[in-house]
Amino acid sequence: MAIKSNDSTTAVVGSGLTYYSGITNFKVVAVNPTLSELHEIGVKYKTEPNYTINLGGEDFTKVVFWLKNDDLTTSLEILMNSSLRISQNDKPQWMNSIGQTTFSDVAPMENPNLSWWKEAGTHKAIKGEEKLIAFTQAWANVASGDEVVYDTLAKIAKGDVAELKAVVKLLEKNEVRLMVGVRTSDQGKTFQTVYDKFFGRVSPARDEYFVRKLNDPKYGAFNADYNTDLQWGPYIPEVVSVTPDPAPALALDESEDWS
Q1: pTM > 0.70: yes or no
Q2: Shortest CA distance to 179 belongs to which of 160, 163, 192, 166?
């Protein structure tokens, strides 16, 4: 007799892919990798990845960080280009060398309402810069008030990510704490996605900051499905309970013998 058995709770038929959701730690293993580099980290793309996209007539570079832990390999995409980021009120965004950011008609150090602003490295920010810096601060575990500056930011925005690749090697032992969800496209394709409104540090793991951002009705929405307890693990879709229509009452035939 030869029987290769499994525990009854183990899905072996029709289980499909396992999708994950929740908050957990990841290592950054690549940025804008080639096809062969993707294969090295276990991502089985068939063609060379494209790191440009046009949205609304505007060209963007896709800065794609590949993330890995024991359960999942997924990616975070940051869209960048060299144009200035302008608010809906036509105010430019400003940043400095420690990652502070604000929108202001004049340089922040000239704005009396921004007395907290540190002047070093003050400049007008380009699109995607704030998100890249915020991600780097969490990933590199930059202390409050310390510098976080990319020397080749203009090149990065145009697709030359050599400096970012160097940082991936420099921080190969670091981890960043992220929230992951599950999305289904209009074409019916299901895929993992990473929340990009907040990036957390491993220590201390202040997961309440994710909750605070998610609860921001204007800027915090996560366009994905996820387990509402935010605990890391396989994603369990909510099951909608369907109550069937009551069966019609049977008409009794009084002439039938029921005895």
Answers
A1: yes
A2: 192
pLDDT at 156 over 80: yes
Contact 237, 248 (CB under 8 A): no
Which residue, among 175, 239, 185, 232, has the nearest Cα to 19 in the 3D structure? 232
**Domain boundaries defined on the chain:** 20-83+126-234
**pLDDT (average), residues 46-53:** 96
Give the residue-averaged pLDDT of 60-65.
98
The single-letter code of the amino acid at 145 is: G
Sequence-separated (6 or more) residues with CB below 8 Å from residue 42: 73
CB 104 within 8 A of CB 111: yes
How far apart are the C-alpha atoms of 125 and 84, rounded to whole Å? Answer: 6
For 119, the token pair is 């002047």
Q: What local confidence, expressed as pLDDT, does residue 218 receive?
A: 85
pLDDT tens-digit readout, 246-258: 555 544 444 444 4
Mapped onto helix, strand or coil, the DSSP state of residue 208 is helix
Rounded to 5 degrees, what are φ and ψ at 209? Answer: -70, -35
Cβ 189 vs Cβ 200: under 8 Å: no
Classify each residue of 194-231 as buried b or exposed e, where b means 16 or more C-beta atoms within 10 Å of its C-beta: bbbebbbbeeeeebeebeebbeeeeeeebebbbbeeee
Q: Strand runs (DSSP E) across the chain, as ranges?
A: 20-31, 52-55, 58-68, 73-80, 93-95, 101-103, 123-124, 176-184, 190-194, 233-234
